[in-house]
Amino acid sequence: METIKIGILGYGNLGRGVECAIAQNPDMKLVGVFTRRDPASVTIRTPGVPVLPAEALEKGLDIDVLVLCGGSATDLPAQTPHYAALYNVIDSFDNHSHIPQHFAAVDAAAKAAGKVATISTGWDPGLFSLMRCVAASSLPQGENYTFWGKGVSQGHSDAIRRIPGVVDARQYTIPVERALAMVRSGVNPTLTTREKHKRECFVVAEEGADLAAIEREIVTMPAYFADYDTTVHFISLEELRRDHSGIPHGGFVIRSGKTGAHGENTELMEFRLKLDSNPEFTASVIASYARATYRMAQKGETGCKTILDIPVAYASPLSGEALRKSLL
Amino acid sequence: METIKIGILGYGNLGRGVECAIAQNPDMKLVGVFTRRDPASVTIRTPGVPVLPAEALEKGLDIDVLVLCGGSATDLPAQTPHYAALYNVIDSFDNHSHIPQHFAAVDAAAKAAGKVATISTGWDPGLFSLMRCVAASSLPQGENYTFWGKGVSQGHSDAIRRIPGVVDARQYTIPVERALAMVRSGVNPTLTTREKHKRECFVVAEEGADLAAIEREIVTMPAYFADYDTTVHFISLEELRRDHSGIPHGGFVIRSGKTGAHGENTELMEFRLKLDSNPEFTASVIASYARATYRMAQKGETGCKTILDIPVAYASPLSGEALRKSLL
Question: Cis link prior to B317 (omega < 30° from 0)?
Answer without folding.
Answer: no
